[in-house]
Amino acid sequence: MTHDDLIEQILTPVTHDLGGFKVHRTLPAKARTMVGPFLFFDQMGPAILDAGTGIDVRPHPHINLATVTYLFGGAIDHRDSLGTKARIEPGAVNLMTAGRGIVHSERSPGDERAKGPELSGIQTWIALPEAVEETDPAFQHVTRDELPVVEDGCAKARVIMGSLWGRRAPTDTYADTIYADIVLAPGGSIPIDTDADERALYLCDGEASVEGVALDPTHLTVLRPGIAATLRSERGGRVMLCGGEAMTPRHVWWNFVSSRRDRINEAKRAWKAGEFPVVPGDSEEFIPIPEVPKTVSYP
């Protein structure tokens, strides 16, 4: 099988240095805005921050999407306008559904700050189907032990969302979605399911290839639909598999996502006017709306 038979597209990351750690962002990109319902894909770190410091993402809003936070190392305290307080640690998943509107903050826990917080993981945004974009906001925390693990010799895969390898994660989904954390020891391999409309592989660290085509670190490699393939590693590596049903493109502006541009304009107005709900216990400061958005609108 040739490279062109297998690979539809390779997305190069935009890397941001946030002072102490880097974020590699592969979605959205001008070349492609979505893979299945995934419209935002960030790798945070890996990094060890200075003792006494940490991340402090102040309260900020979202609409018409769901955020998925999955860590490899460290911990993050999540608070939101529903009154949720949850600590996410490696192997668990936080799914926050914004729906018609939610506000949340993300901060390093106090005990992590004291020793110098570790930060390593993936944060993604998932588009909601148009029929449920304005659903009630919600939060779901699924523990490490609740997520199914498929293990065979030198391959270990944790199913984060959807159904893969005959196992289904309990994480809520709004559209057909696949998401998994695959760790391959030297000599390990695992087949990639063909059922999803769109699929992509992201090499977090180490080395891996698919049907002999080497994966580039921190790049999102989009596979052609319906092509059977096997992921392999000679020296060991960690790969995220994501995708699902194809969806119509979304408008993205700052932290706002919607199928309708006028809905984003309304969210801008509402955030400026202070009409979003506050985060209990974390409402004294917030991120103001930027004059120039950090995320460009597509299309």
UniProtKB/TrEMBL annotation:
Ranges where the Pirin N-terminal domain occurs: 21-126
Family: Belongs to the pirin family.
InterPro entries: Pirin, Pirin_C_dom, Pirin_N_dom, RmlC-like_jellyroll, RmlC_Cupin_sf
Positions of the Pirin C-terminal domain: 179-276
Lineage, opening ranks: Bacteria, Pseudomonadati, Pseudomonadota, Alphaproteobacteria, Sphingomonadales
Pfam families: Pirin, Pirin_C
UniProt feature coiled coil, ranges: none
Protein name: Pirin family protein
Gene source species: Sphingomonas donggukensis
